[in-house]
Write a structure and sequence with these properties.
By secondary structure, this protein is of the alpha/beta class. It has a single domain (2-186), classed as Rossmann fold (3-Layer(aba) Sandwich), CATH 3.40.50. The chain is 45% helix and 19% strand. The chain contains eight helices and five strands.
């Protein structure tokens, strides 16, 4: 199984600690996983030039997004993770979402793709869940991607030492939750 893990954090913190742990769990199960850190990608904001992309079904911008879209089409499943910024995904993740609009416009069939969606944040979980739903409902469902697991995790904005330690303190069942997410993502669908 080929997984594409996309992290929308602007720094190496909580979201990246989780995606790296998921990478370990996926590889232990024999999955091929590629981590994309959006902060290391050149993804320009959508310019809203629908006259171009709606007619040509591709974007005119010369950046890393076309290659990322190709990787999305090749993958069997995804892990999407973003920190919570005012109950929304980070700006990096939002740029990624906006640039995926060409998939929606072109009516690309992503219905066989599966996704795990995670949001992190220092707020109460009910507020982080709003960010989570923005990704699951407004992005994944719009593209027809089946969300097989979604969860918000509490984190600290400022941490001393390793963010993974802080995450485990705030979320005692973190490893079990991540193991369950990997298991459901790896489960083959009946034909």
């Amino acid at each position: 199984m080929k997984i594409l893990s996309i992290c929308g954090s602007p720094r190496a913190g909580n979201s990246e600690a989780i995606i790296r742990r998921l990478d370990e769990l996926l590889k232990a199960k024999g999955a091929e996983n590629e981590i994309i850190l959006l902060r290391k990608q050149n993804i320009q904001p959508c310019a809203g030039c629908v006259e171009y992309c709606n007619k040509r079904l591709k974007c005119w911008k010369k950046d890393d997004m076309p290659g990322l879209l190709d990787k999305m089409l090749e993958a069997d499943g995804y892990i999407f993770i973003s920190p919570n910024y005012f109950k929304m995904p980070s700006g990096l993740f939002k740029n990624f979402i906006d640039r995926c609009s060409v998939l929606y416009t072109a009516k690309v069939d992503l219905s066989k793709k599966r996704a795990v969606v995670i949001a992190t944040g220092a707020d109460e979980v009910k507020h982080i869940n709003v960010c989570l739903r923005n990704i699951t409902d407004n992005f994944c469902k719009a593209l027809g991607i089946k969300v097989v697991a979604a969860k918000s995790f509490r984190s600290k904005s400022e941490f001393e030492g390793d963010p993974a330690t802080s995450l485990k303190q705030l979320n005692p069942g973190l490893d079990k939750d991540l193991e369950r997410m990997v298991a459901v993502l790896m489960t083959r669908r009946k034909r």
